[in-house]
Write a structure and sequence with these properties.
Layout lengths: L4 H13 L3 E5 L2 H9 L8 E3 L3 H6 L1 H5 L15 H10 L5 E4 L3 E3 L4 E5 L3 H7 L4 E7 L3 E2 L2 H18 L5 H5 L14 E5 L8 E6 L6
Parallel strand pairs: 1-9, 2-3, 3-6, 4-7, 6-9
Antiparallel strand pairs: 4-5, 5-8
The structure holds iron/sulfur cluster (SF4).
């Protein structure tokens, strides 16, 4: 897929104006090379669920034994899972993707349990967001529309008990398994460089 280089450049400039570090890399391999320079041995690291992060190969890196990392997928039970998720608020580095990056430099997310967006907002010393250039949109309305387009697919993939998982259409549902509970838009980082955005010139995530 060809991406609009000018749009990427403008987005990166605007992210920087909001005190987010932002950089473009052509592919997932370069993203991983960069990530390796952003984490120190022994760091407490955590990640959100993300197709993008899995795709670029972050899991093997986090599980290398060099870091203080606990894999949520290996939780012994629900209580252990909750403990692992709560650790992320004390992470040295927290990895996530984003649902959309608006070209004016704002970072748009929707979340179900809201454990991802809350850690983006506060807690971890450093946040690293990896997003394919396919996630750049030109307005907040388009970011919201993007989420409503991909959320049903995500619900289906995860076997969530939501009406959109059945018919692929958002019903603005009121069911316990709703995946769109919180909308969080990051407008600015008061701490310069706390949030690092890596835009990858590949179609990544859904
Ligand atoms: S609000 Fe409900 S129906 Fe709509 S996309 Fe989110 S989970 Fe699906």
């Amino acid at each position: 897929m060809d991406f609009d280089a000018k749009l990427i450049e403008k987005t990166i400039e605007n992210l920087k104006k909001r005190q987010f570090n932002a950089v473009y890399v052509p592919d997932g391999q370069r993203a991983m090379e960069l990530i390796k320079t952003m984490v120190k041995s022994g760091d407490l690291v955590a990640r959100s669920g993300s197709v993008t992060l899995s795709r670029i190969g972050l899991d093997n890196f986090l599980k290398s034994g060099e870091f203080d990392y606990r894999d949520q997928a290996r939780a012994k039970d629900e209580a252990d899972k909750k403990r692992i998720v709560r650790r992320r608020f004390f992470a040295d580095v927290f990895f996530s993707s984003a649902n959309a990056i608006i070209s004016d430099g704002r970072i748009y997310n929707e979340d179900g349990a809201s454990t991802r967006v809350s850690a983006l907002i506060y807690g971890p010393e450093k946040v690293v967001i990896v997003a394919g250039a396919n996630k750049i949109v030109e307005s907040q309305a388009r970011a919201a529309a993007r989420v409503k387009k991909v959320a049903p697919q995500n619900c289906k993939n995860n076997n969530f008990d939501t009406p959109c998982a059945v018919d692929g259409v958002c019903h603005d549902c009121f069911v316990p398994g709703r995946s769109c509970c919180t909308t969080a838009i990051l407008n600015f980082s008061r701490i310069p460089g706390r949030i690092n955005v890596i835009i990858v010139g590949q179609e990544l995530g859904i």
